[in-house]
Amino acid sequence: MRQRKNLDVSSTDSKTNIPKSSKSNKFTHPLLKKVFFLCLFVRFVNAFLVQTYFNPDEHWQALEVAHRISFGYGHLTWEWEKGIRSYLHPVIFAGLYKVLAFFHLDKPWFMIRTPRLLQSIFSAFGDLYLFRLSQEIFGDRVAKFALFAQLTNWFMFFCITRTLSNSLETVLTVVSLYYWPCIRPSASKISRGSRKWGLATAALACAIRPTSAITWIYIGLLELCLTRDKLKFVLLEVIPIGTLILGLTFLVDRWMYGTWVLVPLNFLKFNFLSAGGDYYGTHVWHWYFTQGFTVMVFTFLPFSLAGIFKSKQWKLSGLIAWCLAIYSLLGHKEFRFVLPVLPIALMFSGYWLATIGGPDKSTGRAKRSPSSHDRCSGKLQLAVLFLAVSNIPMAFYMSMVHQRGTEDVMNYLSVEANSGKVKSVLFFTPCHATPYYSTLHRNLPMRFLDCTPSDVKGALDESDQFLVDPAGFATEFAKNWSIPSHIVLFDFQEKLLKDFLALHNFEEIKRFFHAHFKVDRELQASVAVYTLKGQ
């Protein structure tokens, strides 16, 4: 049988003497089940605790589309008109909605919470596979601490159970990495079909989110360099599996769009060749290195850097550097774009934590003196306490407090609409600032301010016009409106529209806290709901 080049078959890490996985110390299958159910429990709790608004795509590019598929109404943004989004991701949640409708459970509570609960199941598999990947590369001790890092990191807690395509992409990335021989220290432990599973999962990640190809170009080239059967890899695995997965995706999009649409090509043209994403803002080239990714890793950062240099696992650390570098070439940058490599950075944190209190590195012996063991044990406890105290409160605040008003207002309106108290809604807010029909779940007239990119450079969309002059825009808008039963707006614009609201006989009926500090606009401290007097 052909052997792979440069195999590392040592039983311990030569630098730290941390035992690597073996048949004698490897976690057993029943214990892996316990790990999975622990992750599942944590992610279920995680999903219930996430009650804030992070990114419009969580609702507008996933749940809103799924709601339209399942119930026949819901708003499709301009991206769907241009064919730069695949239906593969929303179809998952459309299936969930169909199940809820079949059992007559499509009520506000279930419509709001079950999508994140479904995503939490996917996330638990991602946690499990990070545990298994860490176990295979570094050993059992590192796997425990990698899981600790994954479950306590504030941004992972904040983002991974949301219904963003990036969240599922992250799960698929971790699962796929586990099956790639080029990532393992020894390919001899992997079955022949392992790489095929890795390829299939990677192709699925690319189908859901085309930019995932950035990750798999790196891994694919690495595998191509290390494998001896290069032609077999390309001709009998990459091409057939990639064609099968992407072909099925094209069929789903053909069915949903009603015509043949090459989503990856359209996505590439808009986001890379024409820099269309820049319409939504740009950042300096080094933003991921100095702000974005560093904030995501947070207090785990020094532990991750130490783990990278200590472990000398340059293939995985190279993947992090590669993704950050390529995404840095794009003008438009967001935290969620680099979410797939966050678990890898956290795994390196776990590696460094595992070295604290591990075998004696200076002598290479596993035994320590009692005083030395106590000192290392104290350092480890202090490090774990520091990471937990610095991340868990942050996770809770960002998930339960910061920017929760726009979620709360739609949850409120969905209950009111279910009771027949809402006839129509107008959103005098920046576009896509709240969930929409997927939360309201009533086919009522609603109107938000459009922000479709214009072909005319420098032209202001409705949302921008409103933010520049709220009173002037509202006055003009009201000349041709069908007067709504409810108006939703932030407190900042509310102050400028007091006279307008009074003139049109609107009064405040509900107010929701939103944020303590501003993000990228003026402070939006609260969200107010106004209704026609006497209604």
Order of helices and strands: HHHHHHHHHHHHHHHHHHEHEHHEHHEE
Multimeric status of the protein: single chain
Uncertain segments: 1-11, 21-26, 360-366
Largest β sheet strand count, sense and barrel closure: 5 strands, mixed
Number of DSSP strand runs: 5
The strands making up the biggest β-sheet line up spatially as 2-1-3-5-4
Tally of DSSP helical segments: 23
Helix content: 55-70%
Question: What does this entry look like structurally?
Answer:
The chain is built from 23 helices and five strands. Strand 1, helix 19 and strand 2 form a beta-alpha-beta unit. Helix 2 packs across helix 4. The N and C termini lie far apart (79 Å).
Secondary structure: elements and pairs:
Blueprint: H1 29-49, H2 57-71, H3 78-82, H4 88-102, H5 108-138, H6 140-152, H7 154-159, H8 165-179, H9 194-208, H10 213-226, H11 230-257, H12 263-273, H13 287-297, H14 301-311, H15 314-328, H16 342-355, H17 370-400, H18 405-418, E1 425-428, H19 437-440, E2 446-448, H20 462-468, H21 470-478, E3 486-490, H22 491-496, H23 498-503, E4 506-513, E5 526-532
Parallel strand pairs: 1-2, 1-3
Antiparallel strand pairs: 3-5, 4-5
Helix pairs in contact: 1-5, 2-4, 4-5, 5-6, 5-8, 6-16, 8-9, 9-11, 10-15, 13-15, 14-16, 20-21
